[in-house]
Write a structure and sequence with these properties.
27% of the residues lie in helices and 40% in strands. It is built from 3 helices and 6 strands. A 6-stranded antiparallel sheet has the order 1-2-4-5-6-3. The longest helix has 16 residues, at 4-19. The relative contact order is 0.20.
Length: 139
């Protein structure tokens, strides 16, 4: 059974995703969201590939960013990705199902580091390291 914290994080993350027009427009589906961990999926559509026929890096990053956001929002106040580094490792193409898995690596004060791996068919497409800024405690 999930703890109350897990339940809250999942509900908060799903509410954030439900209100995110970019997530909806890209067809991103959040499959799992709990403190420090999330899984998101996206099918690559024809309007998501660049001029050379591979998935636009911005689409891949947006999927990873969404997974990091879902993994890091485990309180009622929303945390935000403050910066990220991305490494594109192999191409993906129209029709591919991309899966982003985000995990918290460390939390120090109000700053967290999260890694997201984007894969398709067991092949790594990109790795993203995100720096997340947690909100101040409300008083």
């Amino acid at each position: 059974m999930k703890s109350e914290g897990d339940k809250h994080a999942s509900e908060h993350s799903r509410r954030i995703a439900a209100q995110d027009r970019v997530v909806a427009a890209l067809g991103i589906r959040v499959e799992r969201a709990e403190p420090g961990y999330a899984v998101a999926r996206m099918r690559v559509r024809p309007d998501m590939v660049n001029g050379v026929g591979v998935t636009h890096g911005g689409m891949i990053f947006t999927l990873a960013d969404t997974a990091i956001a879902m993994a890091s929002n485990d309180s009622a106040a929303s945390s935000l990705v403050a910066g990220a580094d991305v490494a594109f490792l192999s191409p993906s193409h129209e029709g591919d199902e991309l899966v982003a898995v985000a995990e918290r690596r460390t939390l120090a004060g109000r700053t967290g580091l999260y890694d997201a791996r984007v894969e398709t068919a067991g092949r790594v497409v990109a790795e993203v390291r995100g720096r997340v800024r947690m909100p101040r405690e409300t008083r």
